[in-house]
Amino acid sequence: MRSGHSRGRLLTAAVGLVLLVGGFAWAVTDLPGFGHYHHRYGAYLAQHSVPQRAATNSVNVITFDYRGFDTLGEEFILFVAVVGVVVLLRRIRGEEEEGDEGAGEEQPRASESLRWLGVASAAPIAVIGGYVVTHGQLTPGGGFQGGVILMAAITVVFVAGEFMLLLRLRARAQLLEMGEAVGAAGLGVLGFAGLIATGIFFKNFLPHGSRGELFSGGFLFIANLAVGIEVAGAILMVLSELLDQRLLRRRS
Amino acid sequence: MSVYPYLVAAWLLGCGLYGVITSRNYIHLTICLTVVQSSTYVLLLGVGYVNGGKAPIFAGISERSVVVDPIVQALTLTDIVVEATVVALLLALILQANKRYGTTDPDRTTRMHEE
What we know:
The complex is a heterodimer of chains A (about 250) and B (about 120).
Chain A: H1 4-28, H2 40-53, H3 58-66, H4 68-99, H5 112-134, H6 143-159, H7 163-171, H8 173-198, H9 220-251
Helix pairs in contact in A: 2-3, 3-4, 4-8, 4-9, 5-6, 6-9, 8-9
Chain B: H1 4-22, H2 26-48, H3 70-101, H4 106-114
């Protein structure tokens, strides 16, 4: 099956792979032993997240407060990637849809028990997602993680075969796009609000509250919420674009 | 023994790259790429682990207790987000390639492109 050309390529790759992985393995033997390296910077931030911000989840404090500016960039990577997916798939969709207008709407049905399981688990998963988003400053989680869980609720519906529900969602694509954009802009607005209120970009300008409270950590609650909305919207956009393709293929 | 987690990262990197090189299907290739990226998670979290350290969540534990490094955990979060975007874009590109060339085999799409 493979031509000589690709065998040569494989050999080259094998040499590179052995050198890279061998070099990597050799390099890590010089790292401080597992569990023995004490990071002064990490320990400092961990021990100051409660005294300085009253938020108990120091990972969340670092993500949205100490490293808030970086996270803004990270969020826009996500935003731009979703725009990229939409742009990549949109042109072709227009081309194909002309050919098969009014084609059969027959959808394969999932088994009854699978459908009920999907419908029944969607709401609890959505509640967990909402909890993870809103309690990011207190317990493990946050906007990114919770947004993905929120999306899982909708994915479960998709797996259960409720195509029509998702098609209805698809029809409201504009709302999705707006939600995503609002979420993405929300974090930026927070950064600028800090700039206006205190003169420092992404300075946590809201009262920090007290440890263990839902609204502790200043603007972390809002940041988590904005990112949660953005992530859920972003993944939903990607999923619905890919779903569109799938439905098109099925019809043609 | 103390470098074992790092060697796991190296092994994951090697496995993933081997998959990328020998892949005959773009979707398989994308999954292999995620394996490559998982090696970075293992490395980051491995570097941040502190013996006897607790999770860096100060709910119910003292502010002075020894915790694992939260910075690398935040970086791993960034890493995962980037991976998700890369996979989404790649899948969109694969769909396009499949429409244009009727195949998801990297070798065959390249050959068709040359013809």
